[in-house]
Amino acid sequence: MKTVKIKNSDKETTIGKIVCVGRNYAEHAHELGNSIPEKPVVFLKTVSSVIYSGDKIVYPAYSNDMHHEVELVLLIGEVIKDADLETSEKAITGYGIGLDMTLRDVQSELKKKGFPWTTAKCFDTSTVLSDFIEKKFYQLTLDETISLKVNGEYRQKDQLSKMLHKPAGIVQYISSLMKLEHGDLIFTGTPKGVNKVESGDKLTAELDGLLKLECSVR
Ligand code: ZN
After folding, report:
1. What is the residue range of 134's domain?
2. 113: CA distance to ligand 1 center in Å?
3. Which end of the chain is less packed: N or C, by CB atoms within 10 Å?
4. How remote is the CA of residue 17 from the centroid of ligand 1, in Å?
5. What is the pLDDT of residues 15-49, one digit of tens each?
């Protein structure tokens, strides 16, 4: 069982499922040579792959090209299905930042074959989470900047306003595909600048001064 820790409190929420959207920033879709789909690309990550700030990301033996993807993560607080936009917004009860670590070499092979991305996305330690801030204490404006530094140098840094699909719209769309429940997490896609990490690299992700996570690659 893995939990989400709520910032400045003893509260923890048990994680349900982890739903991710891909290609939600135009410049990132282009840097990987992908077209921009009309609807978000949706995939899942496993809860058992979750680690936290301070932990180590472990390079699997079957990859030589692990990439960082820093993302805004939404915490869902209630059960919704086929929700409208207003209900979708209300169902978001907190925000965090996360790393959707991705084996790009494995993913490229899977894409060629038309296979699911599971083995590129769900290896142990592939999902890194910060603490979460509750929406009742902070309402996101999308003017915030999400960033990722590797060994002190910026690799990714973009305003959340560049998201093609905004948080409530993403939740609404996913709720049209599957039920969302209390404790579910939604990764909202990564901005441009994804790149390979090496063993020994130190990763620091931030959302303005609000949220921060630090980890290293083993
Ligand atoms: Zn991602």
Report:
1. 3-217
2. 20
3. N
4. 15
5. 999 999 999 999 999 999 999 888 999 999 999 99
